[in-house]
């Protein structure tokens, strides 16, 4: 039976001349919500409603992990066993109380179901080191093993036992949502036992009972949906107190122009704005608030230097010529320091980010708990660049000269700005220094970068935990190892020690030492981070906090 929308929603949508009610939020987006099954959802407009209706044990509040359905946790000395104390008096939207059995079932289910492209698969890969349910994995991954991994103890605490210490545990826990076991089992989902364990191994549950009629512990409960709308209402029994906005409507509007007009008329409280040029036209418009400089979550922009370029057109290691570079060009620390010093970050922010970029002093995301604001990044100085290049390759590079190939990526204006800055400053330093610029299609550029064929590459990298971020960027075994070819045993030891130490307070000084070392070695250059932009009605309060948490419950009018 088709569910009819509530009267408030009908009234709100029927009249485009009326501003949204004081207790309602209308968020106009460009894409419809597909599946809100919490184990599957990874697309932006699926995750957004999931985060309102469901909750994990902890919340990622812009790099700070705050208690949510758990109030605290303890870890064994080796970091393998984590015990969560659960919050009491928490109710699901159907009025039933949340128990440890629900949390146990939810984590076990996340470790069991979900296609290879699901959120559950990502969490399994991180916590259990299971990249996929291959035949070999299926032989050893049994119900008994799963049951031993997640269980409730006699005190009603949830105990998670892993094969290794996982530094990014809390990040995965924030995305592991608690669901009511009885509702799922009654709806034909996994029984929670061994009898149908194999049938649900890696199963796509996009159309589960939770996807059809979501029931969580979040501040908002499900009301209705159709191809153009997703409707939620405030949960009066929410443990954190009922939110200020009682009704939420995610409304799909394809036209950029229509969304902007709706915002101007007050028919939408938040509208997805396509670009900064459109945003600029909203500045000063009565009833509209423009946000130009909101921080970005868990992302870092860097220039990586490749120490062993896999390009047979280049000279052999150590051989110099004015019309080429050796394959090991960036293995010389003086070359790396010079290229860091000749990058004009102010010009990059002005021309590449339209004036909206956050300066950085390390290659960690700006909101990362291990970032250290006291460290000094490379400073733009052509005098420093000249001094370093005069020392490079035993002093021979300055007199011999070089020609470096620079690649820009099709459709990436930022890569063009980076190449332009380097070309101008390289050729300004010495008449024997040259740079050639060519454009690659994005897919070809990615293949060349990951194949180690580019001298250096500007890219955006993610990772909430510092180990995920730094190991991926710098380690020879990291995802970008082939793109950088860094061989540094001391750095690898520092990475391992920081990863294997348990607890943020103990790890933080280790990361300060590591970041200090990385800055000195200049294996990469931190680029200013692009800032988030948005536009809302002036009546809406709390959007900067929403940008950090992604939770509608922090908004009000």
UniProtKB/TrEMBL annotation:
Single GO molecular function: peptide transmembrane transporter activity
Lineage top rank: taxon: Bacteria
Pfam families, per the entry: SBP_bac_5 (PF00496)
Leader sequence segment: 1-19
Any one Gene Ontology BP term: peptide transport
Keywords linked to the UniProt accession: Signal
Sequence ranges assigned to domain Solute-binding protein family in this UniProt record: 64-478
GO cellular component, one term: periplasmic space
Record-given protein name: Peptide/nickel transport system substrate-binding protein
Organism: Deinococcus radiopugnans ATCC 19172
Taxonomic lineage from the root: Bacteria, Thermotogati, Deinococcota, Deinococci, Deinococcales
């Amino acid at each position: 039976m088709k569910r009819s929308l509530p009267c408030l929603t009908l009234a709100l949508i029927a009249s485009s001349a009326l501003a949204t009610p004081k207790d309602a939020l209308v968020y106009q987006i460009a894409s419809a919500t597909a599946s809100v099954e919490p184990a599957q959802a990874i697309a932006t407009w699926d995750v957004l409603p999931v985060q309102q209706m469901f909750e994990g044990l902890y919340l990622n509040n812009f790099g700070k992990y705050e208690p949510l359905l758990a109030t605290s946790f303890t870890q064994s000395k080796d970091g393998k066993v984590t015990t969560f104390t659960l919050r009491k008096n928490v109710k699901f939207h159907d009025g039933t109380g949340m128990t440890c059995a629900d949390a146990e079932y939810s984590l076990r289910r996340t470790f069991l179901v979900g296609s290879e492209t699901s959120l559950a698969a990502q969490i399994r890969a991180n916590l259990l080191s299971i990249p996929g349910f291959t035949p070999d994995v299926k032989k050893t991954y049994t119900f008994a093993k799963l049951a031993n991994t997640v269980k409730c103890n006699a005190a009603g605490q949830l105990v998670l036992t892993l094969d290794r210490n996982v530094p990014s545990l809390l990040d995965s826990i924030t995305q592991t949502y608690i669901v009511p076991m009885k509702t799922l089992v009654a709806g034909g989902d996994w029984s929670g036992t061994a009898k149908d364990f194999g049938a649900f191994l890696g199963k796509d549950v996009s159309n589960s009972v939770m996807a059809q009629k979501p029931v969580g512990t979040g501040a908002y409960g499900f009301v209705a949906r159709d191809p153009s709308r997703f409707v939620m209402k405030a949960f009066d029994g929410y443990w954190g107190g009922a939110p200020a906005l009682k009704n939420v409507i995610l409304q799909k509007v394809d036209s950029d122009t229509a969304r902007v007009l709706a915002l101007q008329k007050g028919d939408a409280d938040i509208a997805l704005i396509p670009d900064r040029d459109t945003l600029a036209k909203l500045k000063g418009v009565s009833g509209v608030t423009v946000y130009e400089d909101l921080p970005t979550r868990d992302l870092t922009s860097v220039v990586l230097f490749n120490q062993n370029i896999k390009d047979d057109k280049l000279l052999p290691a150590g051989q110099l010529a004015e019309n080429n570079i050796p394959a090991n060009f960036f293995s010389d620390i003086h070359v790396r320091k010079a290229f860091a010093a000749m990058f004009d970050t102010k010009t990059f922010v002005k021309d590449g980010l339209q004036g909206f970029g956050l300066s950085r002093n390390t290659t960690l995301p700006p909101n990362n708990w291990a970032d250290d604001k006291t460290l000094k990044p490379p400073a733009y100085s052509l005098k420093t660049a000249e001094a370093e290049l005069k020392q490079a390759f035993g002093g021979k590079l300055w007199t011999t000269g070089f020609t470096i190939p620079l690649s820009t990526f099709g459709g990436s204006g930022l890569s063009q700005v980076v190449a332009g800055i380097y070309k101008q400053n390289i050729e300004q330093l010495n008449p024997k220094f040259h740079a050639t610029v060519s454009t690659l299609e994005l897919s070809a550029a990615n293949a060349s970068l990951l194949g180690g064929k580019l001298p250096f590459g500007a890219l955006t990298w993610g990772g909430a935990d510092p180990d995920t971020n730094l190991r991926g960027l710098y380690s020879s075994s990291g995802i970008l190892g082939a793109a950088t070819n860094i061989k540094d045993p001391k750095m690898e030891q520092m990475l391992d020690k920081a990863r294997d130490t348990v607890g943020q307070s103990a790890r933080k000084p280790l990361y300060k030492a590591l970041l200090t070392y990385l800055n000195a070695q200049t294996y990469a250059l931190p680029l200013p981070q692009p800032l988030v932009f948005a536009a809302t009605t002036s009546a809406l309060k709390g959007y900067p906090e929403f940008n950090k948490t992604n939770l509608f419950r922090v908004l009000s009018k």
